Amino acid sequence: MYKQLNHKAWFLVLPVVALVAFNAIIPLMTVVNFSVQETFGDNVFFWAGVLWFEQVLQSDRFHDALLRQILFTTIILLIEVPLGLIVALAMPRKGAWVSVCLVAMALPLLIPWNVVGAMWNIFALPEIGLMGKGLRSLGFDFNYTRQPLTAWFTVVLMDVWHWTSLVVLLCYAGLVSIPNDYYQAAKIDGASAWSVFRYIQLPKLKRVLTIAILLRFMDSFMIYTEVVVLTGGGPGNSTTFLSIDLVKMALGQFDLGPAAAMSLIYFLIILLLSWLFYTVMTRNEAK
């Protein structure tokens, strides 16, 4: 018997589609409009074509910011993903300490980004900060306001403190969802802890780790507020990542055409790299 489909439920989705269109598509089209035109004010525009895209792609300033961004994201992923997995494996599965550990892991995620930057700004000050003054008392020449390497160390440490908890919580959720039957079978077979991790836990965590890597990649590649509050992109341009350079170009210099072109290139880079990450990590599943 032919069953008639009822498509009335789609009308419930229309408000969401309209909201997404208003908040995403329309602003995106505005950026696209600015990226191919030049304006001298008074809403007078002149067609520029791909001029701004060529200017951005050939700019050493863009190349330097992109390299700093890629380096920062690579460091963050190499530290936070393994560290988050290790902490999740060490957390208890039963008992009163479970709630304590989960709350402790969630606390850094509840702090607003600008507050995180302000906290670490004070914490790392070489004269009065607990970390800065402590390191200097141990003989280290620590001054993140003047030394690029020290500024990088502080920014990376801040991000690790702030966002490793996200990886921990995701991995922990994946671990507790593994049925106990797998562990019982491994115990009967006399499997070692490493064998349990390699053949049971790690395969079951593959989807969770994919989500964690994608989230941390996108977040770290778009980092702005914490670094601006902490270092302002300095000293010099040593911590001026793509997002900071984009804001300086758009609001500081008011170069709307190049800024719009750069934002679209920025968006396409994130989209392409996210797709590559997802494709590589889910390649075996497709087979």
- The domain count comes to 1
Number of helical segments? 14
Secondary-structure arrangement, i.e. CATH architecture: Orthogonal Bundle
C-alpha geometry: globular
Radius of gyration: 24 Å
Mean pLDDT: 89
What is the first-to-last residue Cα distance?
A: 37 Å
Tally of strands: 2
The CATH topology corresponds to MetI-like fold
| Share in helix | over 70%
The ordered string of helix (H) and strand (E) elements is HEEHHHHHHHHHHHHH
Which CATH class?
Answer: Mainly Alpha
- The fourth-level CATH homologous superfamily is MetI-like
Secondary-structure-derived class: mainly alpha
The parts where pLDDT drops under 50 for at least 5 residues are none
Largest sheet: 2 strands, antiparallel
Features:
287 residues, mainly alpha, MetI-like fold, two-stranded antiparallel sheet, 14 helices, globular
Written description of the protein model:
- The chain has helices at 14-35, 51-57, 60-90, 97-110, 113-123, 130-137, 148-176, 180-188, 193-204, 206-221, 225-230, 242-252, 256-281, 283-286, and strands at residues 37-39, 45-47.
- The chain has a two-stranded antiparallel sheet with strand order 1-2.
- The protein has 287 residues and is mainly alpha-helical.
- A hairpin with a 5-residue loop joins β1 and β2 (45-47).
- The radius of gyration is 24 Å and the shape is globular.
- The chain is built from 14 helices and 2 strands, in the order αββααααααααααααα.
- The model has no long low-confidence stretch (mean pLDDT 89).
- Helix content is 72%, strand content 2%.
- The two termini are 37 Å apart.
- α2 crosses α13 (256-281).
- The protein has a single domain, classed as MetI-like fold (Orthogonal Bundle).
